[in-house]
Design brief:
Elements lengths: L5 E3 L2 H4 L5 E2 L11 E3 L12 H13 L1
Antiparallel strand pairs: 1-2, 1-3
Function: Involved in ribosome biogenesis; more specifically in 18S rRNA pseudouridylation and in cleavage of pre-rRNA.
Organism: Haloferax profundi
InterPro entries: H/ACA_rnp_Nop10 (IPR007264), H/ACA_rnp_Nop10_sf (IPR036756), Nop10_arc-typ (IPR023532)
């Protein structure tokens, strides 16, 4: 699922908080925007089993 909400790509250097918009450029500083959604889940994650096992081991310590 692709998100329509975008965030200013330069907000850390130009704004004190993230600037969200639906357009391809920031309304405050005219910088390009990027997708604000996290990377999608990959069902073919070949190392997921090992990563989850390591996470469980470190949580038990």
């Amino acid at each position: 699922m692709k998100s329509d909400i975008r965030v200013c790509s330069a907000w850390r250097g130009r704004h004190d908080r993230p600037v969200y918009t639906l357009s391809s450029s920031c309304p405050e500083c005219d910088a390009p925007t990027e997708n604000s959604a996290p990377a999608p889940y990959n069902p073919e994650d070949t190392y997921g089993e090992y990563r989850r096992a390591r996470k469980r081991r470190t949580a038990d310590e």
